[in-house]
Amino acid sequence: MVSAAIRAGKAYGFLLKAVLGGKCALVTSDEIINEIREVLCRPKFRLDKNEVDNVVSALESLSDIIETKSKFSVVRDPADDMFINAAYDGGADYIVSGDRDLLDLAEFKGIRMVTVDEMLRILQSDG
């Protein structure tokens, strides 16, 4: 959903509408929110502090923020394990990402790693 906040596009907009309409839910953790804030503050995104704060606030209001207890270490890049842990502890079915390390994992304990376009197709096929 971070990408939805900073990119325009049909798939991102559809995912945002699906979340707002209750068709799917966002699960995140404080660790992930802190990572998102740090990433959005990078110069390449050209967002000022207020814009970053607005994106993070929107994410927090749309998400089920869970406390992670799991400590799985399964992703090629250990920094990405936080997404696995949050998804597992939050009971998620999917992790939507463009990160190659997560996508190459494909599935973990019933959680599928999918791209935005794949998630769009899944949501559209569910009616």
The radius of gyration over CA amounts to 14 Å
Strand content: 5-15%
Structural class: alpha/beta
Shape assignment: globular
- Report strand order across the widest sheet: 3-5-4
Arithmetic mean pLDDT: 91
Outline the biggest β-sheet. Answer: 3 strands, mixed
Task: Quickly give the CATH architecture.
Answer: 3-Layer(aba) Sandwich
Distance between the termini: 21 Å
Task: Kindly describe this structure.
With 127 residues, the chain is of the alpha/beta class. It has one domain: Rossmann fold, CATH 3.40.50. Helices cover 52% and strands 13% of the residues. It has 7 helices and 5 strands; from the N terminus they run H-H-E-H-H-E-H-E-H-E-E-H. It has a 3-stranded mixed β-sheet with strand order 3-5-4. Strands 1-2 form a two-stranded parallel sheet. The longest helix is centred in the middle third of the chain and has 14 residues. The chain is globular, with a radius of gyration of 14 Å. The mean pLDDT is 91.
List keywords for this structure.
single chain; 127 residues; alpha/beta; Rossmann fold; three-stranded mixed sheet; two-stranded parallel sheet; 5 strands; 13% strand
TL;DR?
With 127 residues, this protein is an alpha/beta fold. It is 52% helix and 13% strand.
Can you lay out the helices and strands and say which pair or pack?
Layout: H1 2-6, H2 10-20, E1 26-29, H3 30-40, H4 49-62, E2 63-66, H5 81-89, E3 94-96, H6 100-105, E4 107-108, E5 111-114, H7 116-125
Parallel strand pairs: 1-2, 3-5
Antiparallel strand pairs: 4-5
